[in-house]
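dumping this here before i forget
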Amino acid sequence: MKPSEHTHLTIKALAEDDRPREKLVTKGRQSLSDAELLAILLSSGNKEETAIQLAQRILNDNHNSINQLAKLQLNDLKKFKGVGEAKAVSILAALEIGRRRTDEGVDEKTKVNSSTIAYKLLKSKLSDLPHEEFWVIYLSRNNSVIKLECISKGGVSGTVVDTKLILKPGIECLSSSIILAHNHPSGNLQPSQQDISLTKKIKEVSLYLDIIVQDHIIIGDQAYFSFADEGIL
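structure:
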């Protein structure tokens, strides 16, 4: 008997308690592992693997991290044998629903009085992108959020930011202060010299318009760097 014949089992051959769909129905969704949840999205495996085995391999290749999995693009997922476009789309859609749920968990009208709150507002938008984006939080006089806006999108190592594009929305919405934010896809949170110079430039120009730059936050994988907290604003 070939090795694959020893290891490969269909979902139906598993004990009922080990079948992810049945387990969800009888024990609740919280009882399922990450691999079991992913297996439900996959629905089926390939000739050598069950859906659960395929899910485990996908997770293993991504350091068993949902956050790392969320960074994959459509073609990245399709590289796994047994994952076609339909399955890849289902996985990406589920991850996007999770991201949007996180967005709804933060009240944008909450007063932003710390870097932690600012980070929570932007974490789901920036933490798992494969490219850089630059966002701005526009605040009222009492630090309530007026709006969040993406100013620019770039490549893996940077994005072009025009100061005029940052300040124009601030003038239009009568913002009293702003918080700058961008992500580092590499996960390195340390600001570059370009980040520091850009922050200084925006801060100086904003003062002429009576708009205060409260902070500049760099977002990485599940962590952030705050210019204000570090005393370099």
